[in-house]
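Progress note, sequence design subtask.
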């Protein structure tokens, strides 16, 4: 361990052969993973001033700045990425030997905190969790929007987040999980009323629009991608739940745009009708996100690997 964590090169700024303090390195790695002094202090059971002092001490010892201070948290500089890559495996191995924070007193692993969009969790993730539970994995699942969920992940409140976009910066590690195709749908009654218009986009201006939010995030993206124009209109009904949006359209309220996975059964049964089948449908890639490095809870890796395998069938 000492050889792995001592000065590996004299350009790091401290005396050759002088080991960096392990406690400082643990604090550094926690800040690196959370992207926040405040979140790191909470996880380490320290005060924020203590974490700040330890990072400044490590910066003096290494002769390098480690983080850029931002309005919301900190961002690692390239040298911090290099340092984290050198120490993450030995420190995580040491934590496992010493008894990681991811285990309770009776030796059972802590719950894995998983978060993501409510609709994807309910439709795709939750039905396939039985094998994990049978292995003794405990899960705490939280629905929500990607941006606040990623903030909570940085703060250590979640272990894994299914995100609707790739997070920026280096404090979070993201791998592509699944592609969701968006489809333009309405009820059979509205399809009959529309007939076969020559210009579908124009014809739909006379049909009530049902949307997830006032700014039409999904519908506007579909319009730009498929019709090549900006959609300017007010929704007739909004609900921040895509299952609710689907239910309204099934009931005949108007039209909307939904992920195909969420309305596949309704399309197959005829409860919904796909109005257009473009050669290049709009697709959004979802990402599985976690803090870099190995978690102290071994069940996090089990859940991560299970989701990556299961996503192939979504």
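Output:
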């Amino acid at each position: 361990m000492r050889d792995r964590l001592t000065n590996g090169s004299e350009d790091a700024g401290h005396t050759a052969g002088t080991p960096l303090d392990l406690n400082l390195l643990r604090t550094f790695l926690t800040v690196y993973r959370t992207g926040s002094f405040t979140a790191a202090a909470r996880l380490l059971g320290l005060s924020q001033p203590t974490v700040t002092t330890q990072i400044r001490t490590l910066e003096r010892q290494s002769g390098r700045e480690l983080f850029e201070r931002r309005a919301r948290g900190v961002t690692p500089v390239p040298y911090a990425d290099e340092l984290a890559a050198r120490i993450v495996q030995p420190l995580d191995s040491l934590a496992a030997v010493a008894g990681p924070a991811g285990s309770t007193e009776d030796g059972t692993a802590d719950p894995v905190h998983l978060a993501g969009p409510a609709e994807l969790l309910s439709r795709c993730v939750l039905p396939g969790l039985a094998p994990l539970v049978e292995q003794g994995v405990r899960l705490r699942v939280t629905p929500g929007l990607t941006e606040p969920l990623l903030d909570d992940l940085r703060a250590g409140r979640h272990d894994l987040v299914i995100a609707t976009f790739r997070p920026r910066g280096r404090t979070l590690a993201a791998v592509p999980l699944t592609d969701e195709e968006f489809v333009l749908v309405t009820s059979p009654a509205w399809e009959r009323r529309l007939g076969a218009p020559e210009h579908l986009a124009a014809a739909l201006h006379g049909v009530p629009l049902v949307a997830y939010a006032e700014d039409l995030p999904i519908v506007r993206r579909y319009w730009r991608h498929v019709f090549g124009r900006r959609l300017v209109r007010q929704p007739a009904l909004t609900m921040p739940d895509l299952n609710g949006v689907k239910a309204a359209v099934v009931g005949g309220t108007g039209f909307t745009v939904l992920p195909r996975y969420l309305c596949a059964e309704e399309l197959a049964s005829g409860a919904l009708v796909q109005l257009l089948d473009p050669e290049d449908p709009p697709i959004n890639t979802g990402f599985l996100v976690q803090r870099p490095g190995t978690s102290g809870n071994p069940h996090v890796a089990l859940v991560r690997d299970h989701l990556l395998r299961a996503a192939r069938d979504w």
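The domain at 112-172+291-313 is CATH 3.40.190 (D-Maltodextrin-Binding Protein; domain 2). Work on this subtask will continue into the next period as scheduled.
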